[in-house]
Amino acid sequence: MEAYSLTAADMRDSILRHLAYELGTDPGHATLHDWRIALSLAVRDRLVDRWFAANRATRAAQPKRVYYLSMEFLIGRLLEDAIVNLRLEEQAGTALADLGLDFDAVIQNEPDAALGNGGLGRLAACFMESLATIGCPAFGYGIRYENGLFRQSFQDGRQIEEPEDWLSQFHAWEFERRDVAQEIRFGGEVTQKDGRAVWTGAEAVIAAAFDTPIIGWKGRWANTLRLWSAQPLHGFDLARFNRGEYAAAAEPEALARTISRVLYPDDTTGQGKELRLKQEYFFTAASLRDILRRFEAEGGALADLPKKAAIQLNDTHPAIAGPELVRLLHDERGMALDEAIATARGCLSYTNHTLMPEALERWSEDLMSQLLPRHMQLIERIDEAHAAEMPGRRVTLRENGEVKMGEIAFTMAHKVNGVSALHTDLMKETVFADLHRLHPDRIVNETNGVTPRRWLLSANPRLSRLITETIGEGWVDDLEQLDRLEASISDPGFLDAYAKAKRENKQDFAEWLAAEQGVRVDPEALFDVQIKRIHEYKRQHLNILETVALWREIKANPGAGWVPRVKIFAGKAAPGYVFAKEIIHLINDVAEVLNADPVTSPYLKVLFLPNYNVSLAERLIPAADLSEQISTAGKEASGTGNMKFALNGAPTIGTLDGANVEIRDRVGARNFFLFGMTAQEVEARRAVPDHARQAIQADPRLGGALKAISQGAFSPSDKHRYRGVVANLTGQDYFLVCSDFTAYWDAQRRAEAAFADPAVWHRGAACNTARAGWFSSDRTIRGYMTDIWGTVPLAAE
Ligand SMILES: *Cc1c(COP(=O)(O)O)cnc(C)c1O
Q1: CB 480: neighbour CB atoms within 10 A?
Q2: Which residue, judged by its Cα, is nearest atom 11 of ligand 1?
Q3: Which reaction does it catalyse (predicted)?
Q4: pLDDT in tens, 333-366
Q5: What is the arrangement of strands in the sheet containing 402-404, beginning at the earlier edge strand?
Q6: Which DSSP state fits 601?
Q7: Would you say domain 452-769 falls under CATH 3.40.50.2000?
Q8: Domain 62-76+112-448+781-789 sits in CATH 3.40.50.2000
Q9: Partner of 202 for a Cys bridge, out of 21, 115, 144, 187, CB 3.0 to 4.6 A?
Q10: What digits encode the pLDDT tens for the residues 506-527?
């Protein structure tokens, strides 16, 4: 393969050539940004060659392709990914060194592509990489948001949101496809012509395609991530401009562009809701048209579409794909309605990501009728067809004037999957109990995974080197080979090397903290890490309550031999989620008091790192000792952060929730600090009146911590700042923070005792690495391929 024959000198020449002829800059004047772009283009050249080879192989074989529709792709930086997967680290490193540049500095100059909120979008990104590694012909389809997830900072402890303008710099990884564009319409009316429904949308925008190649391990295969950008049908209005109406002239363009302007606009307002539904239809409709165009170009009979296209809906955001595909087949291509429904179902499958009914999307029928009048009619027809299929056992797709997108996705999919064993079981019993009874073979489980190339090989080079020295390199695309480390776990030499890698990672992180955040921490302390979106069900407030209780205990008895600990938090709160923002404020307030306490701060520090994103996760996870996965049991569908930590040798302190259950089964109960109620116990406990008050009375540590917060110990200038938080916890406490507190406290003490004995600790950590190989997204994708898609890998020449 060509990438291998590339020398460092070739690489250097290529960088210099791009610097001169692409950027018009000579080396004497180049900034870090210029060098980074020049390197990206040099690497991209290699990548494009592999991409073409994969595309040629696909065109020749005309195989069934996978289409992954996702509103979010949280891809992060791409340069290092490409370098690692093309195995160009040495060449790139040497070339940059020759040019007097620091490899890491160049890599870190790249902005994070944050086209997602959290786990769901990151899963889509891991899947894209695994599909390419496996050689499964696939397209990812989504939206090219101009502004991704907001940039977070803190002002007086409060979250501040600013737009993230990742596209303000030249983006080396995408290619605009001017020849691929779809016209997408909204609104208007439905008329009948020759017995057929004809929808004439009133408003139109253009969906313009931007392609990013996604390269797999060793460059063996590459797929395309196609993101749609909304553009106006007509440019700006010259007549109005000439009349001096400058703002009005630009208005149609601005309106069209709003559709791909921002990720998840605030949907607490009516207008926000309308925009969100438009975004969903926009990218789904553009993608389906693209899929049909490709299918028709290959000359297949429409009824064979399910043999050529596996369309996966990542959550309900693209659920309108059901009615839209029926419309494309029935209204526009004349297929009988029943056949159109069956054909669409043969192609579609749906991944559910939540059990919380309030998180399953519903749209008002009024809004849907106004924006998508034909789809509203088809939803009724699909509902009737479903009722006819299942007489007497009607599950409706509409309720109380709302359209239920979860039910539509389920009804229009041939397979529906949960994302961990527990979640899939609960799905059958709760949200989709009725539909599961009607279609007992439809629900399957595909436990999530993460790509080992990004989350171990490139994020943690020290540990990766040790693993490769011990068991060879095969683990990188066959992660279950990590079980071969098992034999080394009892070897003191191996454990020493394992401990050394972790220690050096922690030192690096401490240095970065000092340089970037101006905070000093002791690298010998226990790094206790909770990084994820801020949400009540994820219970960052349980963690901070335990922190306050621990602080009070240390203060009362400073000489009791405490294990030094640094509690590290990071995560963003949705701009409209008031309670989550109060939790952030509280953690920052607690940090300020604790870090300034001369008695306790040698043993306990609290950090809230701003702007959690993929790059911060890559930096922090290899340095973590303890992984906080403490959601209320039954609420976290799977989690993927939990898997990244386990792989990198940070044991979990956690509940029996989501994939934690499967992680514990694999790494062993001894190497997992379990606490808390099970999903069933949670339901029973919630039925106990006054459960929070009882828990508080039973544990003075909890009572003391709550009292300190409510009396303003952390907000002296505004003593009642946390009245709402305390009232929530002492009142309804829906997420059972108080009821799980004591068990959590005890589990923390067990973790501490284990940490105090390095031999015990490193053994447990190494068991996590050695036994977490199953959590590769390669394994997950193979599961989808056999259980859901019916696709096989191809090889490029
Ligand atoms: C992995 C990841 C997540 C998901 O974390 P969970 O702990 O599973 O919620 C969210 N955001 C980023 C940036 C990630 O890398």
Answers
A1: 16
A2: 118
A3: [(1->4)-alpha-D-glucosyl](n) + phosphate = [(1->4)-alpha-D-glucosyl](n-1) + alpha-D-glucose 1-phosphate
A4: 999 999 999 999 999 999 999 888 777 899 999 9
A5: 362-364, 402-404, 398-399
A6: T
A7: yes
A8: yes
A9: 187
A10: 999 999 999 998 999 999 999 9
